[in-house]
């Protein structure tokens, strides 16, 4: 079984995407043997009112019974936009979203802004996870109209240390760390934060060049299959699991990466 914890529908303003609807995504999932995908709406990154994107996504999921069993929807919430608390409650209690995705760089707030911390605490109180992306696209290939997050700028791409302040601020929340890139070196105290039970990392990011090394360093329970589709492809994340030799990962470990860790984390 394969569970993809990092996928999208919607549009990216700076790049043409294919298979970026529920129907298109499901077609690709069937082709590559993916059973369930955690999805959110890319449009929520760019709409002033992110709730419009959440409504779009839920309307699309409800349009076909097949989608209900194959997709786990996450809402996009901007904690510095007026009315976000109502949007969160509506998304979770009335619309049935199973988690939240937050984009500090695109919505222009610090990861430990008091509003962000409050949002994470509220998501925690709902018993749901909150997801953070290292990045959406490689900053070296970004459009000149995209946000300025290249290395050497005041707001460069994140590395693993960049995520730690919010984990430290709300240590009992559940965190998904997605599209892992850049420096992964951590000291003992920092590694303890990442190794807490409420943290899971997908394997879509370019930093994961050797899955076996990351399992040895972080633990086999820390990682789950994720594609970052349709921006990235389905095969890269799969190959990172399936290409490991028996002395690097036995079949039980591979099954944890394919779906076991995601099932436990998401409660499915």
TrEMBL record:
Gene3D superfamilies: Metal-dependent hydrolases
Pfam families, per database record: Amidohydro_2
A GO MF term: hydrolase activity
Domain annotation Amidohydrolase-related: ranges: 46-268
InterPro entries with a match to the protein in the record: Amidohydro-rel (IPR006680), Metal_Hydrolase (IPR032466)
Name recorded for this polypeptide: Amidohydrolase-related domain-containing protein
């Amino acid at each position: 079984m394969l569970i993809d914890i990092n996928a999208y529908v919607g549009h990216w303003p700076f790049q043409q995407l294919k298979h970026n609807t529920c129907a298109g995504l499901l077609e690709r999932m069937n082709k590559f043997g993916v059973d369930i995908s955690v999805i959110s709406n890319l449009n929520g990154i760019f709409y002033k009112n992110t709730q419009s994107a959440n409504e779009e996504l839920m309307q699309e999921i409800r349009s076909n019974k097949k989608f209900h069993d194959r997709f786990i929807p996450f809402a996009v919430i901007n904690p510095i936009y007026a009315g976000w608390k109502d949007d969160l409650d509506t998304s979770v209690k009335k619309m049935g979203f199973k988690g939240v995705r937050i984009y500090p760089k695109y919505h222009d707030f610090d990861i430990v802004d008091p509003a962000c911390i409050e949002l994470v605490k509220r998501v925690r109180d709902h018993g749901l996870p909150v997801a953070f992306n290292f990045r959406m696209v490689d900053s070296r290939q970004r459009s000149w109209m995209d946000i300025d997050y290249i290395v050497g700028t005041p707001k460069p791409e994140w590395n693993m240390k960049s995520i730690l302040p919010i984990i430290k601020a709300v240590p009992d929340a559940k965190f998904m760390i997605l599209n892992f890139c850049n420096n992964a070196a951590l000291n003992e105290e920092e590694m303890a934060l990442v190794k807490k039970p409420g943290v899971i990392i997908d394997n879509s990011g370019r930093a994961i060049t050797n899955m076996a090394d990351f399992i040895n360093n972080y633990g086999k329970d820390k990682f789950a299959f994720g594609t970052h589709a349709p921006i990235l492809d389905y095969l890269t994340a799969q190959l990172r699991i399936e290409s490991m030799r028996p002395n690097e990962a036995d079949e039980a470990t591979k099954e944890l990466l394919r779906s076991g860790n995601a099932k436990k984390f998401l409660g499915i």
